[in-house]
Sequence to fold (427 residues):
Amino acid sequence: MKTWVRFARVWVAVMICLCVSSLASRADTEFGVWMNTFEQAKRKLDFPACEAALLQALKYDASEYAVGSLVWAQINEGKTEIALQNAQRMVGLYGETPYAVGSVMDASLRDGDFDAMTKAAATAKRLNLAYGQDWTNRMVKDLLIKVETLTNPAVYHLKWTIPGREFTRNRPTRKFGFPILKTSRQTFKYRLEGAIASKVLEAGEKHTVVEITGTPGQDIVVTGDATIRSEAVGARTLRRLAKLPLSAAPPSETGVFYYWTEAFEPTTPAIAEISKEVRRPSAAETLQAILDWRDKKMPYRKLEPSPGTTLERIVAQHCGVCHDASYMTASLARANGIPAVVIGVDSLPESGTFTNADTSHGHIRVKLPEIGWTDVEPLNRGSLLTFGGSHYLQFTIEADKEEPDRISLQSYLVSGQRVQPDEQTTR
Fold:
């Protein structure tokens, strides 16, 4: 009898082991199947499919890569709040690893939780998580640079050369558009070499106009120091703004505006149908729909010569470069009652030293409920969340008719160096 009892116990133990082994094998198989499904969706940048596959995979194995990938997919879906919660769970599960801390930085940056972002950055620096050889270390390093540019202003030393041909015996004195001397986002101080005389004619929030008298045929060198601050709104603010109904803005802020001397009329029939297509219940949602429309329907390509206004040509040709994208985006915003203006900038190199760089660029500024004027890059559909822009030196806000005889420094090549922040500040 005892022999049979011992045999039964052994048999039960063996069966339990077999069952556990079978379940573990099945779990491994199911996890692998779902992770393979995720990788296929990842290659297609199908973020909802990525999230769905990862949620299934995590039922079988909570690996760090699977959880981190879920955070990544949710960030790209715009689910930044839950992505941040999952990133913080990663730290609880796996400790302060480069992947976990980097995921917190990424999710908090996109969500607009800047306290969580700076705390995660401080942890990454304290533990030297950015300086290993793994791809997760490189991810942390890139994110630290982003955090640094959002939390500390960029400082540039710059130089332009105004060619002597601009000054003649008949016209030795000219007007020039300089970078705006002081706004909420930038300060600019300059010096002139080779000028006979100069004076500032205008130094407001829209323009800086400097009158310069030069010697005919002699170049004038403009050197300057620019301090530029980044800007970020964050998803949590946009979620709040999405609850505020879209309302009509004052006509003075949504009427006709100019591309130098060309009038842009937001109510023009050329954009009427597109204006209806992108209209949403709130200003924030409408603006995001405009950015999405530009991303899908207006590829970056130079307009071909053709009859009609610039707006009509954009609609007919379905393309445009940065200034075209900016004027189209601003026109659609104004047509939906959202104040918007186009800003002429130099898009400076984001690091190091540069010589004779062609940096002329344009983006827009929009006025949103509660938060006021904020900058947006039409060429980046995600810029409403985190504009950044610490390399954008602002020259002019083009809402009023420009003087055709004024020359902008934007029309000249620029040399210089970004001296702060640099990669050393992330150590």
